[in-house]
Amino acid sequence: MERLIEVTNLTKTYGKQRGILNVSFDITEGEVFGFLGPNGAGKTTTIRTLMGFLKPDSGQAQIGGFDCWKQSTAVKRLVGYLPGEFSFDPALTGAQILTYLGNLRGGVDQAYVRQLCERLDLDLTKRFRAYSRGNKQKIGLVQAFMHKPRLLILDEPTGGLDPLNQQEFYHMIAEVHADGRTVFLSSHILPEVEHTCSRIGIIREGQLIQMDMVSKLKDIKQNDVLIRFASPASPAWFKDIPGVLTVEPEPDGTELHLTVQGELQSIIQVAAEHQAIHFATQEPNLEEIFLRFYQPAKQVKTEVAANA
């Protein structure tokens, strides 16, 4: 597949304040890519650099073969963009805003615009100042989708939406994907990434720390294991097994709670040797995996040592 977005060693700082540092990734045509990180991690800086709003200190970003800074006008023709906070002239109605932005695009399919508004239950007669946060977000979504762009760049797209509209948004993303178009979705809401994305990148403190398929990332997850024994159990039984990160006894002394990275075969074998009567595992969701990427390594070591 053709690469649509190519980012190489992209760096942007704000004086002494952190921005992004040596960020590199590729996104192929037709992919739905999730860009994850907490507030302040560098998601919006990356997006603004892709959109040509910020000049990088070093490195390069390209969309469709166009340099995002030097050829930003050409880039914007390919993109439907939703900023983190969509704002517009407060005196204009929703209909006027969409007409104006549609004209800037050289005209859009008005039937499709009406369809998007109906799906999101958006009243276009109100002035922008009268809209709630959720309705402002709907205007932002419609203007991003309405010209059926080759690439959608969406910064926290479901902010302010109620659950029904969130589900409708997921359907809209699925339709874009089925149409062979590309989505770059920045978010800190992990369930929406699980719903919509096939591959993700995790950014922390301005640096990209993980890139993988959502399914692959869940394959390398840490399992939570609860083992119950007929008599009091010792954490020492498990502490030297490779992959065991934590072993915590439950209050009654007959149960152990383990956090395990990788295969469980050795855990099952040791549990059987000590007459385990109950063995349960829980697969963490993407949110739990994400939090573990932000857990300092020394904290994991301390937990193991404390329970040894």
Automatic annotation (TrEMBL):
Q: Taxonomically, which superkingdom?
A: Bacteria
Species assigned in the record:
Dictyobacter arantiisoli
What is this organism's lineage?
Bacteria, Bacillati, Chloroflexota, Ktedonobacteria, Ktedonobacterales
SUPFAM superfamilies this protein is in? Answer: P-loop containing nucleoside triphosphate hydrolases (SSF52540)
The record ties this protein, via PROSITE patterns, to: ABC_TRANSPORTER_2 (PS50893)
What name does the UniProt record give this protein? Answer: ABC transporter
Domain (ABC transporter) ranges: 5-230
Tell me the protein family, please: Belongs to the ABC transporter superfamily.
Q: Which InterPro entries match?
A: AAA+_ATPase, ABC_transporter-like_ATP-bd, ABC_transporter_ATP-binding, DrrA1/2-like_C, P-loop_NTPase
